[in-house]
Amino acid sequence: MVSQDQAAAKAAVLIEALPWLKRFHDEIIVVKFGGNAMIDDELKRAFAEDMVYLRYAGVKPVVVHGGGPQITAELTRRGIPSEFRGGYRVTTAESMPVIRQVLKEQVGGELVALINEHGDLGRGISGDEHGLFTGEVRGDLGLVGDVTAVDPDGVLRILGDGHIPVVSTVANGPDSWLNVNADRAAAALAVALGAAKLVILTDVAGLYSDWPDRDSLVSVITTAELEQLLPSLESGMIPKMAACLEAVAGGVPKAAIIDGREKHSILLEVFTQSGIGTEVVPA
């Protein structure tokens, strides 16, 4: 049985969320799903619960995901080698259809199923459908591209029907599908949707100004400060912080990276006064 003190503590938590419920009611929040949260069953289930909670709280969540570990596992199973250059997967004509299938059917399909355990809410959409993402080839990585245009109509239709879009990051290229970075795709989609916030899940507590000094965790950083700091960051952090920078520069009021290893980290970031992780705001 819940004690009076426990009940009061729960009420205090709910009241703390009130300003953020008002701020984000009927607003779009784009969440990039990745890191440990993508491969840990308990974290995946908690993430799906967070998305459903946001939806029933009056927020419009849009999930964007990659699927690196799952792609590597499926390519290995089929005897297709994986090669990486500068943190990017070299994508061949042989591997591209496999990548699309894993992203849409395996990773996206599982997320939709977990969301739908709480009601008929999740809807999967691949970035090459309805002209959602258009891209161009980058460098010498094969069918790897950058998103150059976004048509958000398909995602807006899903939101308009009261559902939660789950977006896999494949783009239409000049001659074929392109494998695009999920962080940057999420930023481009957040801008196109006029989102109130972009949240990127990662495997660290946030941005450190002097890594590995854990006391140097940055709670809030402006776009001007981030532009100066960006070249000195660890290579794995650069795409995530660059995505936050692009989103805010494109008109999204706030972007954040948070620790996806923490259960219900999305709710802590959106609905608590202190938030967690690192938030990027306009200069």
- Elements, N to C (H/E): HHEHEHEEHEEEHEEEHEEEEHHEHE
CATH topology descriptor? Carbamate kinase
Distance between the termini: 49 Å
Which stretches are poorly predicted, pLDDT < 50 over at least 5 residues?
none
Helix content: 25-40%
Number of domains: 1
Strand content: 15-25%
CATH superfamily membership: Acetylglutamate kinase-like
The structural class is: alpha/beta
The level-1 CATH class: Alpha Beta
Report the strand count.
Answer: 16
Output the strand order for the largest sheet.
5-8-2-1-11-15-16-14
* Oligomeric form: single chain
Question: Care to describe what's here?
Answer:
The structure is a single chain. This protein is an alpha/beta fold and 283 residues long. The protein has one domain (26-281): 3-Layer(aba) Sandwich (Carbamate kinase). The protein is 40% helix and 24% strand. The chain is built from ten helices and 16 strands. It has helices at residues 4-16, 18-24, 41-56, 68-77, 96-115, 153-160, 182-193, 223-229, 238-249, 265-271, and strands at residues 28-33, 60-65, 84-85, 88-89, 122-126, 133-137, 144-150, 164-168, 170-172, 177-180, 197-202, 207-208, 217-218, 220-222, 254-259, 278-281. An eight-stranded mixed beta sheet has the order 5-8-2-1-11-15-16-14, with helices on both faces. A four-stranded mixed beta sheet has the order 6-7-10-9. Helix 3 (41-56) links the parallel strand 1 and strand 2 (60-65). The chain is globular, with a radius of gyration of 19 Å. The termini are far apart. The model has no long low-confidence stretch (mean pLDDT 91).
